[in-house]
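Progress report, Aim 2. The chain analyzed during this reporting quarter is listed below.
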Amino acid sequence: MSPPRLIPFLLLLLCVSAADRRTNVSTLPGLDAPLPSHIETGYVTVDEEHGAELFYYFIESEGDPSADPPYDGVSLPRLRRHPYSWTRFANILFVDSPVGAGFSFSRDPKGYDVGDVSSTLQLVEFVNKWFTDHGEFRANPFYVGGESYAGKLVPLLVQKISQDIEVGGNPVVNLKGYLVGNPGTGDSIDFDSKVPYGHGVGIISDQLYEMILEHCGREDYNNPKNAICAQALNRFNDLMGEVEGAHILYKKCAYVSPKPDDDTTGRKILMEELVEQNRRPARPPMDCVTYPNYLSYFWANNNITREMLGIEKGTVDEWVRCDDDKLLPYSTDTGSIIMYHRNLTSRGYRVLVYSGDHDSLVPFLGTQAWIRLLNYPIVDNWRAWHVNGQSAGFTITYGTNLTFATGGGHTAPEYQPERCFEMRLGRARSPGQLPSQEKGVKQTGR
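Predicted structure tokens for the chain:
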């Protein structure tokens, strides 16, 4: 079977020579069935001086190999296939970035000292090396994707790849566009939109909203202008803290990420044996959306799992879903990246911006606002898009191949997997349009 045409590259959250450090995964612990498609893992060196290596998972598009593990609290979490995995129609390359995230590591502690710019350049290095070693996929349409803070880095990465293509960089990837979900921009609009959002959904009162407008203005809420403004914003933050920030209609649950120990200063570097740090996350109720995150800790820290994934022993002492920012010396060294969106859309790249409209962390109001600032003509005005005859969200398309769509929570595919599966990487379809009518997507599997 020829390889599928579409390879989205997703930064989550999403190594010596890749040619020397690949692992073909034949099975996964906890999965009592054959893998639906080929899975490869590996490392790619992105910083020769410090020995920094990014770990990746590559899943070919020939089935639906996703994991949604139930767990009994004693044995290894069991895996099951996810019916709405995007790997049903796309090859997906997941990367643990920046260095220190997931199973990515550095042989020198200085290798963890990265930021927006340096980690983006390392991802460029990763992409170039990966496609050098996987030349059979160079012709495939290539998309970059990320959510939340990664939504800030995606345009930086696409901009650099685009520039390299224009000057004849090798290998040349078939870059077609990118997608960002509830994306941060580094602009004050991300935070400022929380106030009108909180008011619009009824979390804060008219009186508090009017007090904020009167004493704080309509922007730069991170820097209170006076004592009354500060008091009003403190009250605002207290009220917003009463709801689940990632999805205001869901149960408020534990974040399921570890807190740093008092004596923890960073990742352990190449210990001879696996070191137990005992950063086991708190167990949330099973009906919490964060429960699978809790399970992932036990699955990823199982020695059998690590062996099957080809994790080099001694590189990562204990896998955790998210490290507190105090554990990694990461620098937010870029400002607003809205101009990068303008640069890329003006070059004709296809762009999907999707926004879970129940997310209060990066509210859709701010995302809509910066998209309007681009001042692009509308070619398909605001309308509903549908799944199984029901509205799944709302969408609008602009003349520069930029589509905005709503539906779900902060990480929309996590909260609305069926809807986001139908969204198909940027095509919130008109009622009645069939998946086979979409351009640039080859149907695979069932």
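The chain has two domains: 1-185+255-446, 189-240. Residues 179 and 425 are 7 Å apart (CA to CA). These observations will guide the mutagenesis work planned for the next reporting period.
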